[in-house]
Amino acid sequence: MEAKLLTCTVHFHSVHLGKPLESIQLPDGCQFLGLVRADKLVRLQQNPVIQDGDCLIAIALNSARSSSLENVLQL
Prior knowledge:
By secondary structure, the protein is mainly β. The protein has one helix at residues 66-73, and strands at 4-9, 30-37, 40-43, 55-60. A four-stranded antiparallel β-sheet has the order 1-4-2-3, with helices on one face. Strand 2 and strand 3 (40-43) form a beta hairpin. It is globular.
């Protein structure tokens, strides 16, 4: 089982816009690491509120879960 890192840029039509990062339910075995905003890393521990243009960073601890994680991120 290999871990897989995924990123997704949030756009104005995303259901995640305006939500705290920690409030998004991810599939089992997946976790957020943080996000990139204005070329700066914002760590998960800061529990940022997602803004348009943020790049979410998440990891699927088992690559078999990566497609489920990708589906959640792209809502």
